């Protein structure tokens, strides 16, 4: 069944449809993310002195849930919907979410985030697993397939902040958000045309039509799931917004807000379920699943620092980086993806070259090195303080250097892990395991929230920045650098053991 597929550039043709579908989905995701923190600080929470704190809290809850939902979306796909239906459902939910963001209302704001949360849960794990199904297990082509796919992700992540960031400044926030929605619809059209052209064979169909048509409370499961998905959105919106009494002091500023508590409960439930799956698995599967969980854990540490880019680092760019005439703060969100595009192929060629010489480092070493790169990247931002100009703004090239190093680290870890996960999981739970992989990002957003709150600056002044904020940020970055380096060194030291 792998040989029959039409090929293009030495890869199954289906890869290129998934590539463009994911490119546009990520366009919407990262276009919106580039605006999110600044929009909350400048609009949603503008009246609060604690607006940074509130923004960090919502950003972290949103990020945690947007990735945690992938576990549920993965599981529902494995058991009921199949990957194709899940991708459509997710894409539709996400595009509605983006269009709701284009409406100017605070209540709509939380509903929009929630639609994106649920939508991403159905879309993201399934499109990633879909890529894995195009290749025979363990095939060498698969890694390079995932590298190409990762390029697609980052082409979206590169262009979207530039365009949405530009629209937001020139025409208004809502135009930026609206464009994100159009991007998501474009992605769905690509996916749909792949199906029409029959490039996927029989991949991604529901695992079993009987299950799909089985009636629960009088409704077929295949219909019930989308209904529940749409109902889940306002419920999540209520939770996201219920602890943010705009203007009034209240439970909001207590750290243990309801979303964080629920998130922890979900986390525990998922871990328990994972334990149960491992218990049921045979010895070989269990060993592999254990490694999958371990690399997911290391990935959490990395994303915990990396995902600061959409929050603290965007604020740092707005308040302390001399961007004059180069780009806006929202647009700096494109830098990470830009470097991934530049570096993805050279680094993957480097792995191929090292493999030929039998020197390709094993996954745990790559992960340790990735964390070390993250550490050095934050040092670059920390030392930028010494080059600040008379108004407390640091040269742009420090930010550029930071994103360069961070992107090298990312390429040592993320695409490698993505490909490994599809290898390490038994086929019947592969989408679920992909969800577990993305859980690393979900937990990471708890770290992002914690750091964001530590580095929150009290002010309602639109132009806060310069020396008022410089040392707060660079001091924080120095501490982050130390933690990331420490973690990297520990992983490197433990690598021989994990390799075994
Ligand atoms: N940038 C990658 C993507 O969007 C990885 C994101 C993540 O897992 N946190 O797919």
What does this protein structure show overall?
The structure is a single chain. The protein is built from 15 helices and 4 strands. By secondary structure, it is an all-alpha fold. A hairpin with a 2-residue loop joins strand 1 (7-8) and strand 2 (11-12). Helix 2 (51-101) runs antiparallel to helix 7 and helix 9 runs parallel beside helix 12 (363-383). 56% of the residues are buried. The structure holds glutamine. Glutamine is lined by residues 26, 153, 303, 414, 438, 441.
From the N-terminal CA to the C-terminal CA, the straight-line distance is 33 Å
Biggest sheet details: 2 strands, antiparallel
Radius of gyration (CA) equals 22 Å
Q: What's the total number of strands?
A: 4
Encode the helix/strand succession as letters: EEHHHHHHEEHHHHHHHHH
User: Class by helix and strand content?
Assistant: mainly alpha
Share of helix among residues?
over 70%
Instruction: Provide the residue-averaged pLDDT.
Output: 90
Query: What is the topology, as strand order, of the major beta sheet?
Result: 1-2
Task: Quickly count the helices.
Answer: 15
Bound molecules: glutamine
Q: How big a fraction of the residues is strand?
A: under 5%
Oligomer: single chain
> Which stretches are poorly predicted, pLDDT < 50 over at least 5 residues?
244-254
The dominant shape is globular
């Amino acid at each position: 069944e792998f040989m029959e597929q039409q090929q293009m550039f030495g890869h199954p043709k289906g890869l290129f449809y998934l590539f463009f579908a994911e490119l546009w989905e990520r366009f919407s995701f990262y276009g919106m993310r580039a605006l999110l923190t600044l929009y909350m600080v400048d609009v949603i929470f503008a009246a609060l002195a604690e607006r940074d704190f509130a923004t960090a809290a919502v950003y972290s809850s949103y990020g945690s849930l947007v990735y945690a939902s992938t576990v549920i979306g993965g599981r529902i796909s494995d058991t009921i919907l199949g990957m194709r239906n899940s991708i459509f459902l997710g894409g539709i939910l996400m595009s509605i979410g983006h269009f709701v963001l284009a409406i100017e209302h605070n209540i709509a704001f939380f509903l929009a985030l929630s639609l994106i949360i649920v939508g991403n849960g159905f879309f993201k794990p399934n499109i990633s697993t879909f890529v894995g199904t195009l290749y025979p297990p363990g095939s060498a082509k698969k890694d390079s397939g995932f590298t190409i796919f990762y390029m697609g992700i980052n082409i979206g992540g590169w262009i979207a902040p530039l365009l949405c960031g530009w629209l937001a400044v020139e025409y208004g926030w809502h135009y930026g958000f609206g464009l994100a929605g159009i991007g998501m619809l474009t992605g769905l059209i690509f996916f749909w045309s792949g199906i029409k052209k029959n490039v996927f064979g029989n991949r991604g169909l529901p695992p079993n039509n009987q299950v799909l048509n089985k009636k629960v409370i009088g409704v077929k499961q295949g219909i019930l799931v989308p209904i529940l998905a749409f109902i889940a959105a306002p419920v999540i919106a209520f939770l996201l917004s219920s602890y943010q009494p705009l203007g009034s002091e209240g439970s909001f500023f207590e750290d243990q807000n309801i979303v964080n508590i629920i998130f922890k409960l979900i986390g525990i439930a998922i871990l328990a379920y994972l334990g149960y799956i491992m218990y049921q698995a045979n010895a070989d599967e269990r060993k592999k699943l254990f490694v999958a969980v371990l690399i997911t854990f290391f990935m959490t540490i990395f994303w915990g620092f990396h995902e600061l880019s959409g929050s603290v680092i965007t604020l740092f760019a707005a308040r302390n980086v001399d961007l004059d005439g180069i780009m806006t703060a929202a647009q700096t969100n494109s830098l990470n993806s830009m470097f991934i595009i530049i570096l993805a192929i050279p680094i993957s060629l480097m792995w191929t070259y090292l493999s030929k010489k039998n020197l390709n480092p094993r996954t745990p070493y790559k992960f340790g090195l990735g964390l070390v790169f993250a550490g050095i990247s934050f040092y670059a931002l920390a030392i930028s303080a010494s080059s600040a100009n008379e108004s407390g703004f640091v040269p742009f090239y420090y930010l550029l250097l930071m994103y360069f190093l961070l992107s090298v680290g990312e390429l040592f870890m993320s695409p490698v892990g993505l490909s490994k996960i599809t290898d390490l999981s038994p086929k019947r739970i592969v989408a679920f395991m992909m969800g577990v992989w993305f859980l690393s990002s979900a937990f990471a957003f708890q770290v992002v929230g914690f750091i964001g709150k530590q580095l929150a600056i009290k002010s309602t002044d639109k132009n806060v920045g310069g020396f008022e904020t410089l040392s707060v940020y660079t001091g924080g970055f120095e501490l982050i650098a130390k933690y990331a380096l420490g973690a990297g060194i520990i992983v490197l030291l433990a690598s021989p053991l994990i390799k075994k």
